[in-house]
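Onboarding guide, step 5: your first structure request.
Type a short instruction followed by the sequence, for example:

Predict the 3D structure of this protein.
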Amino acid sequence: MSGPTIDPSTATTDTPVLLLAPRINETGLQLRTAAGLRGLRAHTAASWRAPRELLGAAVHVYGGPLFADAVGRELGLALLEPAEDWLARLPRALTGRRVSAATLAEARTLRGPAFVKPPADKLFAARVYPDGGALPGPELLDDDTPVLVSEVVRFRTEYRLFVLDGTVRTGSRYAVDGDLAVAPLGPDGPEVLAFAREVLAAAAGRAPLPSAVVVDVGRTDHGWAVVEANAAWASGGYAAEPDHVLDVVLRSSGPAAQLPVEDMPFLRELPEVVH
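The system replies with structure tokens like these:
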């Protein structure tokens, strides 16, 4: 799938740029098309370095955490992501299970099964572990590595929602009984969005979110529950409307100089990369 793009050499320097990671995925292709139709520059990186020709430009990025870390500081990006303990701050009525924020050292003391995941970067597999002894040891990951520990539940259907300024802009189903099953929101749409409004109302108080974010929700055997929240600039769009996905991605990964004050607490800490 290819789409209209604007040649960087013919665009003005103040035209916003959507920078895509070298290993472009289906969502990246869709966003490239949507950006081109808006008159934005769309640039696919040739390597895991900040393109020299984009230094000083108004850059937004779409790609995984490793790519964002590689180019973010040099390009002056402000990358938004939810707080590591966001899910644990929500009431159990919305999570549908016990969720706690812990360190990996604490999780290694678990005596029974639990779903354990790193809250942001994929440092190890997010899955059900039979006990803490099955988690990566200290020789692989530091004791103070943050994790989320959840009671085990089964999600029957799961949905991804792209949220901008506290409102769902678009969404998609992405899984059924744990298997990938991409489809529009469909008949469940009204229920999904009604539950999302409850979640976002709670987030406005005890569990704030950045202004642009992805929230995953699902249906369990006992009702609706939050799955997790993720950075929009690193999330697949599935069957969501690409133009609305682009709105959320652009806000979530723009120039630091344009960052709204209320988003300051949600900045990803970017490393200094030495070439």
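Each response can be followed by summary notes, for example: Residues 189-203 form the longest helix (15 residues).
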